[in-house]
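cron nightly-structures :: item 1 of 1
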Amino acid sequence: MSGCRRQKSTIRSRGAATVEFSVAIGIVFLLLLFPGLDLLFMGFTYSTGYLLQSAQLRQAAMVKKSAVDAEMTAITTAWMNTGPGQFVNKGQSPPTTKVEYKSRLNGDYTVRVTTTVKSNSVMTIPGLSNVPGLGAPIEYTFTGERLMENPLYATQ
């Protein structure tokens, strides 16, 4: 008869441990999963913004200075309307782009493109609503410099 009592107490302690574990895993799940998703989206935003700036820099190095603003606008519009740009820039102003030309000693020119991308977080986490990327919008600025394909285009 004493063997039966031991078995009941063992079952009760195992049941209590299971309940405690389920509560603990639920709390850990909430504290790690949602911030983890936001951090994953921040990486996605960064890589997508970098690809936008890279495409703008390649195009700016090949077109005339007088046509560069139209080209940057076209690339930004295409980025915002297709693929990853749709998700990154939702609810924010369009990315801004600044193009500068610099003369080098040997007669060549370089073009510098600076692109700023703003993005909202995927979800707002209570208590972290003021942290950029985890609750507040985050802003990335990308800058790249490249040699002009045709140095004459920097002055036309």
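cron nightly-structures :: done
Residues 2-154 form one domain.
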